[in-house]
Amino acid sequence: MSDTVSRPWRPTRNQKIVAILVLLIAWTAMADSWTDKGCTLPQGYMFVISHGGSPDRDQGCEDEPGGPEYTDTYYG
């Protein structure tokens, strides 16, 4: 029998950096899909988190005097 101690697998620093970059790229791609529905990119980043990803067919932003506002009855 071996006297070596088994350590659990831990990601390396490079693996952590790559994982974070992949998440940021995916987040940006989903946020960009909100801009196709009339929202600004910063709104898109927020909506990805609050609405769970890309917009559904009836979600988007309508032009309002103060800037684009979210609506769940988007027909754009």
Automatic annotation (TrEMBL):
Annotated region Disordered: where?
52-76
Q: Report the protein name in the record.
A: Uncharacterized protein
Q: In which organism is this protein found?
A: Streptomyces salinarius
Q: What is the lineage of its organism?
A: Bacteria, Bacillati, Actinomycetota, Actinomycetes, Kitasatosporales
